[in-house]
Specification:
Blueprint (H helix, E strand, L loop, with lengths): L5 H9 L2 H7 L4 E8 L2 E10 L23 E4 L3 E3 L8 E3 L6 E3 L11 E3 L4 E7 L11 E5 L15 E5 L4 E3 L2
Antiparallel strand pairs: 1-2, 3-8, 3-11, 4-7, 5-6, 8-9, 9-10
């Protein structure tokens, strides 16, 4: 007789309704359906119209709304620690060229300092009521795109921002 694998047991445990209710986003109901061909359950999400509400809109300092696809400008210099060490560095304010961080730099200097004026595209705006993210706006920076102020990102990357750190351009 075959023994059930640990992975299958964990999958069944995690798809049980009691476990899912702890991780359920508000506005969703869960239904667990078992199929005859597999002992693994399938999770189905179904939103009800009574519980679904529209997310509050987010605005910049000039009262422009943050929407997906909008071009934004960084209005407060921030550090990007999530990039590889080879992309750590700063920008020269006069030439606006990227200057890599020196090898052997301290941890606080192993980041990309995103300058005021760098532009990117909003790829996601999170619902701050249901999810409560600290940085609800996700911006993607791509070399060769939206470099009107001269700052060219050293690589393509995405980063989360707070509303006060960005301004909507278009």
């Amino acid at each position: 007789m075959r023994q059930p694998s640990i992975i299958a047991a964990v999958a069944l445990l995690l798809t049980s309704e009691s476990m899912l209710s702890a991780f359920a986003p508000s506005g969703f109901t869960f239904g667990v359906t078992k199929y005859n061909t597999s002992p693994v359950s399938k999770l189905e999400f179904s939103a009800t119209t009574e519980e679904t509400t529209s997310a509050p809109k987010l605005f910049d300092s000039k009262n422009n709304e943050f929407v997906e696809g909008a071009i934004v400008r960084v209005s407060a210099s921030v550090n990007a620690f999530h990039l590889l060490a080879k992309w750590s560095g700063t920008y020269d304010e006069e030439t606006k060229e990227f200057m890599p961080a020196p090898e052997g730099a301290e941890r606080k200097d192993k980041c990309l300092v995103v300058p005021i004026g760098m532009r990117g595209v909003v790829t996601r705006v999170y619902d701050i009521v249901d999810l409560g993210p600290q940085h609800p706006i996700v911006v993607k920076f791509t070399p060769g795109d939206n470099n009107d102020e001269g700052y060219e990102p050293p690589m393509r990357f995405s980063m989360h921002f707070e509303t006060y750190e960005l301004e909507v351009v278009v």
